[in-house]
């Protein structure tokens, strides 16, 4: 009996053995990792962008710190120029002209530095354009103010308008900074600059009053107003100042000249305005020293602002580099790890699929053919002479793992062995049935052959026509039975050769 054909294995997802890449296991494993990696890259990009923005803000703060320094320095030089000009007018306009010219040269130098710093500030902070334009308009009138100041008319209002426009620039700088610490540091510089300006106004006002020996009510009100403005600015400074700035202010604004100037001012507010007890020159010297101290405080605070901005810029750049590098490293590591695991998992699954196809398309049929032909079995239940690794050999390495795929491979090995064993049993059963059918058919044919021989003998000896007719009918039936036996031999896979005429026992 020929071996039955094995069932055809159905191929899913089309006729090709290649899986759909869109729905492959590798893609399904990589998709969530890729999404998470993209999210990590997005988060890292945001953090890096934030760090770069902080670095840009710190760089802008450095530029604005330079602008604040140039502004308060120009304010200081203009106030000194105004004081020297007022003193020159008080001396008749001739004695001490060299002092005024020297101070004007220092003022021109400060103006050039301010213009350069203002242009830099305009580039990094377009919001300062309005106040910078106002200060530039006032600076254009500086030459006119100087010409008027040397004449018979006072030019104090022109100088004061210019100083006010510069102080407006200093007050506008903090609003251009997003970092609270740097913005407060810029406010500290602006507050000290305003206090210096108020001190200069007090110096000029009380010097004239001390030289006259009297203080009008309007001047007294003006002094009280300036004192209130100075206290307000000092309170503002104390509210926003950092510990370092407060220490710098306390260290530089402490001294005998500061105490002397404060005492002389308090005497003016408490004494009879008709008879001032102080000397104008002594007041001028003491208050000028206070103004220089304010200028030193402003410069120190500007330097601290610049140093802190540089430190923050460096930290922000470092943070941006570290964040970007760490994000890229983690994303690359995650993607490579996921790719390795996905490829490894996909390869192992393909090995399992190949092993299943080998078992279904080759090993089962070879096992059945080997049993049917009576040859010995090869290793792992394969037929001798089979090419390529067996299904068990392909899954052996996978089954040594500890994950779920290894468990599937182990279960597949069990199923494979059970299938081969069952196929062997079925094949052996078919062989046994075939051999039994062949033996039975040959036995039947032998018996019928002997029966035909006996009938031939009876026919030769019989003379009665009726008896011969019955013998011929019986002979015909026996011949048909012999043909059925031969057909049974054919079905059993044997060769129905002609039997020997000799009787068999």
UniProtKB/TrEMBL annotation:
Tell me, what's a Pfam family for it? Answer: NIT
Give the source's domain of life in one word.
Bacteria
Q: Which GO terms describe its molecular function?
A: protein histidine kinase activity
Which spans are transmembrane here? 320-343
Its catalytic activity? ATP + protein L-histidine = ADP + protein N-phospho-L-histidine
Which EC number(s) does UniProt give? 2.7.13.3
Every Nitrate/nitrite sensing protein domain range? 74-305
Q: Extract the ranges annotated as region (Disordered).
A: 1-20
Its Gene Ontology biological processes?
phosphorelay signal transduction system
* A GO CC annotation given for this chain: plasma membrane
Q: What class of enzyme is it?
A: transferase
Q: Which UniProt keywords apply?
A: Kinase, Membrane, Phosphoprotein, Transferase, Transmembrane, Transmembrane helix
Protein name as it appears in the record = histidine kinase
Origin species, per record, is Micromonospora pallida
